[in-house]
Amino acid sequence: TVSEFRNSFTNRDKTLGGLLAASGFDDQSCLSRYRTELYRRNTPHRPSRHLVQRLRSHESLQKRCGPGTDPYQKAVEQLRSGQSSKIDQNCNYLVWISYSGLGNRILTAASAFLYSLLTNRVLLVDRGKDMDDLFCEPFPETSWLLPLDFPLKDKLANFSVTSDESYGNMIKNKVGVEKENFIYLHLDHGYNDNDKLFFCEEDQRTIQNATWLILRSDVYFVPSLFLNSLFEDDLNQLFPEKDMVFHHLGRYLFHPTNAVWGLITRYYDSYMAKADERVGIQVRVFEVESGPFQHVLDQIISCTQIEGLLPQTVSHEIAPPATNPKTKAVLFTSLSLDYYEHIRNMYWEKPTSSGEIVSVFQPSYEGYQQSGKKRHNRKAWAEMYLLSLTDKLVTSGWSTFGYVAQGLGGLKPWIMFRPENRTVPNPPCRRDVSMEPCFHSPPFYDCKKKQGADTGNLVPHVRHCNDISWGLKIV
Ligand code: GDP
């Protein structure tokens, strides 16, 4: 039972196999940090020893060079003075700009963190409207939040593909990067071929010399890091099971703040804890009009029935009572209420052929994306997290919201393909090949041959995605 499970609290491994530092945090200020596996029961995936060691040494880097330290002060002075001279220190920085929907932000922050780990850089996050409201500090005894008096603070929102300081434009304008005191990395989905050179070995050697890197991205660019030979050995050791990157880094970095943890745990305890099985259904509709759409409902029903995730209903009104019927809790997340209401009614109006008891819930229906609002984003974060606590997960293709849930939960989802011409795709969904998120806009370039190439065909563990044929994912 739930209470027996919770009672084992005292002798459990709260660090998730060494993924989390065992000390250096105030437990009460971030209750979620050491309590996830009371809710997420079946994550057998353990981090490699190499990853654990590397996280500990990265934590000491963040502490030694982070805000408030002498090296940070010196590096900031150099930035403020506009001088390019490389200061003699072992502290280099990557500033992550808060940008785009919450799912995108979580994926890009994880990508930025992996890049920081690989290149020994301190990761600092621009707090935007609410990064500090949603996430606890991931690194002990320091802060990952970019200080408010950071010299380029007011410029962060304005960096774009046309900025002179972007790596792509430095290449295009043949400006030696050693002349600049920071490099802006434009890794947004609308980036150009020069910006994409970021992923090449030769360019990495240059970029790594900069004390300050400023990054704007809205994509999970990890798969292309796996194609860079400079990182190959390291990545092999860090992730012997390659499709675990987001699962480990996501659980390492993103701990819901107490306010969000309250939303998660109250909901879980009320609606999900007691069921024999939990099924998550994430409905994300990328249509201009708001719907509801019949084809979306049809797709949900056919996917869940064909794949045996939800039982069929039978036409007679009364079914013989089953002994010990199985209970299924179905968690819907969607901006609209219509799909959930229909499925809930379906199981109210008719009995199931299997005798299972199906209860259907949806925590919120926000109507439309309101990324600037705190309460809205808290709910979005809580819902991604709740989806990650299910046993079986159905997601909408193309959606980073779903990717976050599958990655945190260590779940290979059933992906509902994005419909075209408002018709249900055939098949409506398919089990994904890995739990990793898809990189939506990878470069198609072979850095060594300096020519175009199908980057989904270069190594066995980086493949095209099921939901976006030109995307890349780690399998
Ligand atoms: P994506 O656009 O599906 O890749 O996901 P993002 O998370 O980046 O952006 C979508 C945003 O719309 C979310 O961050 C939420 O603000 C909102 N949103 C979309 N679907 C849902 C949902 O099911 N529940 C809630 N609460 N918000 C949602």
From TrEMBL:
Annotated compartments: Golgi apparatus, Golgi stack membrane
A biological process term (GO) from this entry: cell wall organization
One GO cellular component term noted in the UniProt record for this chain: Golgi cisterna membrane
Oxidoreductase in keyword set: no
GO molecular function, one term: galactoside 2-alpha-L-fucosyltransferase activity
Bilayer topology: Single-pass type II membrane protein
Protein keywords: Cell wall biogenesis/degradation, Glycoprotein, Glycosyltransferase, Golgi apparatus, Membrane, Transferase, Transmembrane, Transmembrane helix
UniProt superkingdom: Eukaryota
The EC number(s) this enzyme carries: 2.4.1.-
Functional summary from the UniProt entry: May be involved in cell wall biosynthesis.
Family: Belongs to the glycosyltransferase 37 family.
Name assigned to this protein: Fucosyltransferase
Source organism: Rhynchospora tenuis
